[in-house]
Amino acid sequence: MQKLLTAKQMRDADSFTIASKSIFSADLMEEASHAFVKIFTEEFPDRSLRVSVYCGTGNNGGDGLAISRLLMQAGYHDIKVMIARFSANSTDDFEINFRRLREFQNIRIQELRSAVECGAETSDLIIDALLGSGLNKPLSGEWEKLVTWLNSLHKTIVSVDIPTGLPAEEGAGSGHAILHARLAISFQRPKLSFLLPGSAPYLDRFRVADIGLDDDFIQNCEGPYYLLEENDIRERLIHRAAFSHKGTFGHAMLVAGAPETMGAALLTSRACLYAGAGLTSACIPATGLTALNASLPEVMAVVRSEQGLPTSVDWEKYQAIGIGPGLGTGPGSLSLLRVVLKNFHKPIVLDADALNLIAHNYELIQQVPEHSVLTPHMKEFDRLFGDHQDWWSRIETGIDRATTLGCTIVLKNRYTIIFTPQGMCLFNPTGTPAMATGGSGDALTGIITSFLAQGYEPHEAAFIGTYVHGAAGERVRGYVATPSQLIDELPLLMKELAD
Ligand SMILES: NC(=O)C1=CN([C@@H]2O[C@H](COP(=O)(O)OP(=O)(O)OC[C@H]3O[C@@H](n4cnc5c(N)ncnc54)[C@H](O)[C@@H]3O)[C@@H](O)[C@H]2O)[C@@H](O)CC1
Ligand SMILES: Nc1ncnc2c1ncn2[C@@H]1O[C@H](COP(=O)(O)OP(=O)(O)O)[C@@H](O)[C@H]1O
Ligand SMILES: [K+]
């Protein structure tokens, strides 16, 4: 897994690399600019493109000047450089690159003392090298005017490192001017803010350019933030041994569904089965029995009535329980949840209505077995832990609650965030907006419960489950990835990852 850094830590990584490789910081800037140009030429191969590069006078602007020179060398012949000289300050590396650029005869350089000097903008594409990770306050004055004007042009904007005005960590505050980039080519790691929904109005897509910073230094930086990678799953997903049998892979029970929401029980049970549990049982109301038997013959039923569970439930035989999808929040569901929490003491997966019930009866949180996995979406998270103004504060709460409760919390989103009892905060890269359809979360609950039953540590069940859930959704390749389609992809995907 990749360590994710704050802007300050990234600066430390820059300095460490410069010192340990005995290079000049301008060399690192050159390296970064080459890495940017490599990705840029893949994305926009047409050399006749008219490109305007807007540069500040810090190191982000220095990158912009070096990128302009390298683009000329790569054959882009219509390049205009606009330098926003809104303050008297400039960095040494900006000045070095300014001198280098001026040696090119046929490059147009214009200096702006104020945003009104911009004039007509006839380019096809704008490169934004105004401000980068050095941003230390919201844009105001000439910066705000320039960014507002650039946004009003509705041109394709490619940002160097980060869209100008977007904070690297907290996510965007509303009401401030921030450049809207089609693409950001970010150095070494994505910025934390890219992984939060607050960046969505300002950034359509990002790519990461390796600029050769010291990887050991980065991985050993203090801090809880990580990005999951495919290799993390490959390393963890076990290969099915020759003499393994259904007993090897555990027995999972899904407590889910109600007469009107049996689909949730079917989806979560099917996901559990397809993610490899040795045996899967569904605890459902009697009205759902025909549907279960007809659609999932592999899954066994534990039929519950209005009065609750049959007295004969042998709790010991289950390795894991997942509870919540489509359960409802009525008194019957509450007493069912109480019975499960009273009788089952291994880690469980709590989702949807199980979380809503706990939110309204918060004393129940004390009875949740240690190391359990909670899978709230944003609203369920806020119901459980209180309202939050932004995602950054949700992250702080998630880290705190996961450690104090001794549970793993899976906060679902485009980049689902997994908080572990050890204090880690992992972002999952897989998934697609095609999964934004009812029932996707039910599938995730089934998958994580399945991995718990198979004997994975609960936080690892959450990593693997979240990753394969998103990757399966991507494989559907459709405009919509229905939960059923996503579940169908699981066995082949997991075989590829495990072998
Ligand atoms: N060795 C390095 O430090 C490297 C830095 N790189 C580039 O350097 C960038 C960071 O450069 P800098 O630290 O020089 O900072 P920036 O170029 O992002 O900003 C320049 C300066 O603008 C001022 N500023 C910040 N917020 C402002 C605001 N809202 N209004 C007006 N002025 C504001 C600050 O004094 C800041 O230092 C990265 O984003 C990246 O593009 C890359 O060249 C890789 C190597
Ligand atoms: N835009 C998106 N990008 C990636 N994943 C998404 C997106 N929208 C939804 N998902 C995934 O789909 C699931 C939705 O879960 P949830 O909101 O609980 O749905 P439901 O309750 O309908 O089952 C989560 O795992 C989430 O990460
Ligand atoms: K920028």
Automatic annotation (TrEMBL):
Reaction it catalyzes: (6R)-NADPHX = (6S)-NADPHX; (6R)-NADHX = (6S)-NADHX; (6S)-NADHX + ADP = AMP + phosphate + NADH + H(+); (6S)-NADPHX + ADP = AMP + phosphate + NADPH + H(+)
Cofactor note: Binds 1 potassium ion per subunit.
Reported cofactor(s): K(+); Mg(2+)
SUPFAM superfamilies named in the record: Ribokinase-like, YjeF N-terminal domain-like
Binding site for (6S)-NADPHX: 59-63, 132-138, 161, 264, 326, 377, 442
GO terms of biological process kind: metabolite repair; nicotinamide nucleotide metabolic process
Domain YjeF N-terminal stretches: 10-219
InterPro entries in alphabetical order: CARKD, Nnr, Ribokinase-like, YjeF_N_dom, YjeF_N_dom_sf
Gene Ontology MF annotations: ADP-dependent NAD(P)H-hydrate dehydratase activity; ATP binding; metal ion binding; NAD(P)HX epimerase activity
Binding site for AMP: 412-416, 441
Keyword Isomerase tagged: yes
Superkingdom of the organism of origin: Bacteria
Alphabetical keyword list: ATP-binding, Isomerase, Lyase, Metal-binding, Multifunctional enzyme, NAD, NADP, Nucleotide-binding, Potassium
Family recorded in the similarity comment: In the C-terminal section; belongs to the NnrD/CARKD family.
Protein's job: Catalyzes the epimerization of the S- and R-forms of NAD(P)HX, a damaged form of NAD(P)H that is a result of enzymatic or heat-dependent hydration. This is a prerequisite for the S-specific NAD(P)H-hydrate dehydratase to allow the repair of both epimers of NAD(P)HX.
Protein name (database record): Bifunctional NAD(P)H-hydrate repair enzyme
Organism: Pararcticibacter amylolyticus
